[in-house]
Amino acid sequence: MALWITDECINCDVCEPECPNQAISMGAEIYEIDPRRCTECVGHFPEPQCVQVCPVSCIPINPSYVESRVQLLEKFEHLQAASGAGAGSAAGASPA
Ligand code: SF4
Ligand code: SF4
Question: What residues pair up with 26 in beta bridges, in sequence order?
Answer without folding.
Answer: 31
